[in-house]
Write a sequence for this structure.
């Protein structure tokens, strides 16, 4: 039979209350010798606290949910790793949910996680939103949003990056190399990263006295497949010598599509991505991109959520992290 808290108390010759306090690290009024003795017995007896009983007493399950839209996107892989490491450090377990970028699945997973009595949720929302439906949804636990905006009320925190500045830096780099006709290829226009990066693209044009052209903007989804497919439209603009992609996956597809059509990168066309996924430095040529701290986003989101759960923070938190231009091999000076 498994060892119980009563067994530990009997062996240590202390009360079950004392053992419970030590298990929950509430040891301010317990002597060091007693703490050491009980912990030694717990280890020797391979005692594992009953999580269900603890959650009933503490009204906490020490579990959180993490909902992401695309588990295959390397950006979210890094984010998940950061979240998992942070949760482990804080003694929490995580339920991972992948929505396939579908709002119905997102809400279904939120209901499931709440039924499982998680203490809170970190949410990277699906691309396509339903404002009316979300406004009617009542959140009963803290939710921290990452990467994308959502319409749920009472969001407890938000962790994002300076998308506008990141895009501006990408355009500024291309313009500094002499490129003046620059294409922007990105995901759905309805989500925060796309719209804010578009604003950075526009601002760079204004600041450098360049003409902004709607026909140089292409929206689709954040996949390499879209990047490769849209090249057929992009190459119709013979004056374009630079391409800014909304993420690295699009950039990988764009480079593949251009190469198949006989274009040399960066000799004929310079390409900049966004994210700095691991593939960016492994491909040939290596991808110039905007690095965003995806691991830190996941870590900070979980720590913010747990602080809210544990009442270390009670006010809504909004953090905006900086990006960094990483210059590699897919950009060069425009040919005369």
């Amino acid at each position: 039979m498994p060892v119980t808290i009563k067994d530990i108390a009997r062996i240590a010759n202390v009360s079950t209350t004392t053992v419970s306090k030590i298990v929950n690290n509430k040891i301010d009024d317990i002597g060091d010798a007693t703490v050491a003795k009980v912990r030694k017995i717990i280890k020797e007896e391979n005692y594992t606290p009953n999580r269900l009983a603890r959650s009933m007493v503490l009204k906490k399950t020490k579990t959180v949910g993490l909902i992401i839209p695309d588990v295959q996107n390397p950006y979210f892989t890094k984010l998940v790793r950061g979240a998992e490491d942070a949760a482990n450090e804080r003694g929490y377990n995580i339920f991972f949910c992948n929505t396939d970028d579908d709002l119905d699945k997102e809400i279904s997973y939120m209901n499931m996680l709440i039924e499982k009595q998680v203490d809170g949720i970190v949410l990277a929302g699906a691309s396509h939103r339903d404002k009316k439906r979300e406004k009617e949804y009542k959140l009963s636990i803290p939710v921290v949003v990452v990467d994308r905006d959502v319409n749920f009320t009472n969001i407890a925190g938000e962790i994002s990056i300076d998308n506008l500045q990141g895009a501006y830096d990408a355009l500024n780099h291309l313009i500094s190399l002499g490129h003046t006709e620059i294409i922007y290829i990105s995901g759905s226009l309805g989500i925060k990263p796309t719209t804010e990066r578009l604003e950075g693209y526009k601002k760079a044009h204004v600041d450098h006295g360049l003409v902004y052209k709607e026909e140089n903007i292409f929206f689709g989804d954040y996949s390499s497949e879209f990047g490769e497919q849209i090249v057929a439209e992009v190459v119709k603009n013979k004056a374009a010598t630079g391409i800014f992609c909304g993420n690295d996956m699009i950039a990988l597809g764009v480079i593949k599509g251009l190469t198949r059509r006989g274009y040399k990168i960066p000799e004929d066309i310079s390409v900049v991505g966004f994210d700095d996924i691991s593939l960016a430095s492994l491909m040939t040529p290596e991808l110039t991109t905007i690095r965003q701290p995806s691991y830190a986003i996941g870590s900070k989101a979980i720590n913010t959520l747990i602080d809210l759960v544990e009442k270390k923070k009670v006010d809504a938190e909004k953090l905006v992290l900086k990006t960094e231009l990483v210059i590699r091999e897919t950009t060069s000076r425009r040919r005369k």
In short: The CA atoms of residues 156 and 316 lie 5 Å apart. The chain has three domains: 5-49, 63-160+294-320, 163-292.
